[in-house]
Every structure is written in structure tokens, then in C-alpha cells.
Specification:
The protein is mainly α. Helix content is 37%, strand content 9%. The protein has 3 helices and 2 strands; from the N terminus they run ααβαβ. The protein has a two-stranded parallel ribbon with strand order 1-2. Helix 3 links the parallel strand 1 and strand 2. The N and C termini lie far apart (44 Å).
Length: 113
């Protein structure tokens, strides 16, 4: 039989494990505080212990690092402009799953999850 799979794969590169990625990109104290406080706020809103309206905004996927940083800066500016209103905004972005098959690079945007 003739080969039918992976015909255009030039090389396979082993990806870092999540633990190795976390070790190489340690979370700052400020980032940690943002994540912890954000998760706590979302939990209180979902349990109806906080009257704010949860707004999840964002594209369906991000594959360009520059565009992702620009988008995050714009959301941060909007967050500052709307501070004090009865809404809690959460940025959403899809992270492509890490694929194990040859030719699939995959990407993880938030290694500290």
C-alpha cells in the first residue's frame, strides 16, 4: 500500500510539558493576584452573591501574538474607562489545543491555568 498519512510533514517537534512551560514562565505576584481575585469575583457573581453583570468578551481564537497583545491592551483601557459600573468584564480567547499528532503545533496561551 502507498502511504496516505503525514505526507506533508517535514519534522516533528516535541512540545514542552505544562509543568516545564510553567517553570520557564513563572507567574508574577501581580498576575497571581489578578487571577485569584478574578476567579473569586466570577464565582461570587455566578453564585449571585455579587449583583454585577458578568460580561465575557473576545474573539473566538487568537493565533497572532501581536494581535493578542493589542487586543488585551484595548480591553484593559476599556476596563479602566468603565470602572465602577455594575459589570465585570472577562476577556475570552480560545487557545488551540495541544495536538499530539505530527504536524500539529498547538498553542497554550495561559500556561498558569
Amino acid at each position: 500500500m502507498l502511504p496516505t498519512q503525514y505526507l506533508r510533514v517535514k519534522e516533528t517537534v516535541r512540545l514542552l510539558t505544562p509543568n516545564a512551560l510553567k517553570a520557564g514562565l513563572p507567574m508574577s505576584a501581580a498576575s497571581n493576584q489578578t487571577v485569584v481575585l478574578g476567579r473569586d469575583a466570577i464565582g461570587r457573581i455566578l453564585r449571585q452573591e455579587d449583583a454585577r453583570f458578568l460580561v465575557v468578551v473576545g474573539p473566538c481564537s487568537i493565533h497572532d501574538t501581536g494581535a493578542a497583545l493589542e487586543y488585551a491592551a484595548k480591553l484593559n483601557q476599556l476596563r479602566q474607562e468603565l470602572a465602577g459600573r455594575r459589570r465585570y468584564r472577562v476577556p475570552r480567547s480560545h487557545r488551540a489545543a495541544v495536538h499530539r499528532g505530527p504536524g500539529e503545533l498547538g498553542r497554550r496561551w495561559r500556561p498558569h491555568d
